[in-house]
Amino acid sequence: MGNKCFDSAELLAAELQAYRRAETVERNANQRARKLYQQLETVCDDALGEFQNTDSAVKQTIEMMMEQANALEQAYQALSVALNGSREKLASINDLLCIEEMEE
Fold first, then answer.
1. Rounded CA separation 26/28 (Å)
2. Nearest of 32, 51, 53 to residue 43 by alpha carbon
3. Burial class of 53 by CB neighbour count within 10 A (0 to 12, 13 to 18, 19+)
4. Cα–Cα dist 21/25, whole Å
5. Distance CA 101, CA 93 (A)
6. Tens of pLDDT along 24-67?
7. Which of 11, 40, 93, 102 is the most exposed place for a label (fewest CB within 10 A)?
8. What is the pLDDT at residue 1?
9. In whole angstroms, what is the distance from residue 99 CA to residue 91 CA?
10. Residue 2 pLDDT more than 70?
11. What are phi and psi of 4, to 5 degrees?
């Protein structure tokens, strides 16, 4: 009987060791998972920051392009007005020259 009791004590000790090893493995796995989560969070935060910076730069570039397009449109309109004015003056001069030729 003493032998059986000793075997039970050894079994109990082995189970306790196995339980402690399992706890250690679980604790280490949890620590690694937390560390990995923190690293992933940092990567995601950095990527989001870069995306937001790029988005801001793109928006600024688009705004500048829109301003330039508006300025170009205004310049085109001013040029059209000037050309139409010149065309009208040239037509008036041409009309005057034609009238003078007819009178001669």
1. 5
2. 51
3. exposed
4. 6
5. 12
6. 999 999 999 999 999 999 999 999 999 999 999 999 999 999 99
7. 102
8. 47
9. 12
10. no
11. -65, -40
* Amino acid, res. 1: M
Q: What is the average pLDDT across 14-29? A: 96
**Which two tokens mark 89?**
């003056």
- In residues, how long is the chain? 104
Q: What is the pLDDT of the chain when averaged over all its residues?
A: 90
For residue 25, which amino acid is it?
V
Sequence letter at residue 53: N
Tell me the residue type at 74. Answer: Q
DSSP code string of 50-104: HHHHHHHHHHHHHHHHHHHHHHHHHHHHHHHHHHHHHHHHHHHHHHHHHHHHHH-
